[in-house]
Amino acid sequence: MATLEANPLASWTYGLGEKAGEAPDLPKWSSIKDEHVKPAITAAVAAANAEIDAIEKRLAEAESPPSTWAEIMDPLERLSEKLSRPWGVVSHLKGVRDSDDLRAAYDECQPEVVTASLRIGQSRPVYDAMVGLMENEAAFKTLTPAQRRAVECEVRDAKLSGVALDGTQKERYNEIAKELSALSTEFSNNVLDATKAFEHLCVDVADVAGLPKSALEQAAQTAKTRGKHENATAEDGPWMFTLDAPSYMAVRSHAENRALREKVYRAYLARASQFFEPFASTPADASEPKKLGDNAPLIERILTLRQEKAALLGYDNFAEVSMAKKMATLATAESLLEDIRAKSFPAAERELEEIRAFAAERGAPEASTGLMQWDVGFWAERLREAKYELKEEDLRPYFQLPAVIDGMFELAEQLFGVKVEAADGEVEVWHPDVRFFKVLDAQSGAPRAYFYLDPYTRPAEKRGGAWMDDVVGRSAAMAAPGASVRLPTAHMVCNGTPPVGDKPSLMTHNEVTTLFHEFGHALQHMLTTEDVGPVAGINQVDWDAVELPSQFMENFCYDKKVLKKIGKHHETGEPLPDDLFEKLVKSKNFGSGTRYLRQCHFAMTDLELHARYKPGEGADAVFAAEAKIATKTMLMPAIKEDRFLCGFGHIFAGGYSAGDYSYLWAE
Please, what is the angle between helix 124-135 and helix 145-160, to 10°? Predict the structure, then answer.
């Protein structure tokens, strides 16, 4: 017991240990070490198993079925948090502070966590009690609308967890759930490992022609920190390029060196596949390189298991299972996608022809032989610059992260009546770059919520993309002694451009939009006034509606008043000039046909694989299925090494399986 008491993960009480008026009870992120994971999670699993046993015993001994919320739903919420909260901490750390030891601990604990979760989700006594409460018309009417929604969702989720299965079917379902969980983790690990493995060093200044100063500064800094070139400078090099987003996008959009663009493009599309090669020009680490995994067989296995899972649950395909928790049906989602695709395709054709004509007009040698995929992004950016007299780098000096954050918080105060205050140092964080903030009621000053912001890319330990998730949610049942409710806490994670030298992070407008997007998700979680934990904040929001608040906030990135507040020159403090604002707004829809067609490709491929694809027809069958979709959604034939699906973590290692359409649906 003493060992567990000293374990910062095991001793966290996810809100129950805090006292009214004191700082929130949040994870001791920096104190949690890899060796704490196994004992803490083992204890959490044991506690959860003991609690579900106790709940089932009380139900069996009760003289009558539960007829109130407090009898069944509050105990279930407390039970679920015993396991989900500490495991959520471990999962988060794996995404932002990955290491071999943490992976080993995670992989060791994952099967017992899945087993315990299935034990809870498949509890027949609990399920019968919830169904009984729903069918007790008089009792159900006494519940609030939020409580009724929570009960209905829990009953639905129990069905989708296999509560109705018995015997060998239940055993098989549980085997599938465990294997899918492990495959998802392996898929994500393989993508991160491939992204980390790639590096390309340029030593000749001619090889980096066209790249903006900000990209060269970042590449020189990477050469110092990763490549051990202590004297690297933006002016003289050497410069190291990687597959993390700021580096990859800079090369793709600005490098005049066509061979460099091709190398980076091919590597990015081949991540976690048989075609991927690190192309390390100067290995940063002389030790034995890590064997890189191929996600192609994992994709086939994941799709096979999902189809089998759907059949066990009585559905025709896995897309139908996914749609059970969404607004759309398969038919309505595909109808929307086809409508957008049909409108986008001719627009994208016109855009590509305009890019080809522009490249030829500028005397590009590749224009005579035909532009390739690694050329289109470069020449599209040149065309945009010429059309609107606007360069991405013209905007970057005005979007310094500290000013962007301040302006974003001021907007939140105007829109929602909350004041955001920095609270760095009041709680532990998982990396020195991570910020911590309080969200207060603007009038009373009372706390409403808290959140972390992890803004910069760290390709050695942090997965790509951007996301928001909850640390804890608003809940009356989980309130600390003396408090009426536990307040929500979120974390926002981005992979933006880090500071270089004594300069702050200077963001692209796209990175600004991403920050506002994730803030929208966080606001939905944090500003809820609902005290019923299972449906508070982002909990049980239909998945194809969950992107609505995020995309709503993106719109303010083109609002003049907002841009004047967030856009302040990092050296002079001068606000964003009117002419730059006008050019930015005019260029907003540049390439929109191509952009929407690309989104349709992702979403239509996702639905095809989960609704109609039949696994077991050969190693390359899944890529052939994607290629068939591509005849309607892509204008240029894919290169042989295109294994985009092997990096499509959203649907194979995230929550978007048969749900990638949600972005367009919400928009």
Answer: 140
